[in-house]
Structure formats: structure tokens, C-alpha cells
Specification:
Blueprint (H helix, E strand, L loop, with lengths): L1 H7 L2 H7 L2 H16 L3 E2 L2 E16 L2 E17 L5 E21 L8 E7 L1
Helix pairs in contact: 2-3
Amino acid sequence: MILEAFWRGDKDELGQLCDRDVYEGFAGAIDARVAAGETLDNRLVRIEEATIVGAGFDNPVARITVRFRSDIAAVTRDAQGHVIAGSLDDAVEAVDIWSFSRNVASSDPDWLLDETDEG
């Protein structure tokens, strides 16, 4: 959901899925893409592996860190729709480490993405 919202440039959805710092990073990248007249035509082909690499609890916040190994087909298009980078025919392996947090005292059941890193 997070990747697809980012690729679509949906800042409203990202605001519901990410904490403030991560959201601001995504929003800045979206704004730069829009200013350049570029769009993304990306597809998550498959998640090869999702491994929990860390977990913790600092009352009242629970945190879990997951290492994702996935295949992504990615294309960047210019304002005229011409491909300027990537290919939908060749998926590229991506390895990312994402951390999610949740205030367990809150009635909100959602976990928020609060940190990203390349794995």
C-alpha cells in the first residue's frame, strides 16, 4: 500500500500510513517528481522474502523491523509520457529494511512506517 501510494503520488494516503518524518521524505520526492513533470509506472512483481530482523517495546510504543526482498518493475516517464528510465519488462531486485511502530495504548490499530533503509 505504501509503495503504491508513493508511486501514484497520493500524499493523503501516505499521511495515514507513515509517521511525520517518513511522510515528509516521501512528500518531498513526490513534489520533486511533479515539478520535473515526471510520473512513475511501477509494479511490485513479488515479495520474495519478508523477514523480521528486530522488534522492541518502549512503553507504550511497539516497534518491528522487517527486511523485504522484492522484485519491482519500474519506469519513469516524462511529461509527454516517454520512458526516460527503467523497464516494465525487467524487474529489479530491491532489498529494503522498514520499521513500523504503533502506540499500543491507542485505540487506532494501524502500524505506521517510521523508518526506511536500503538493505
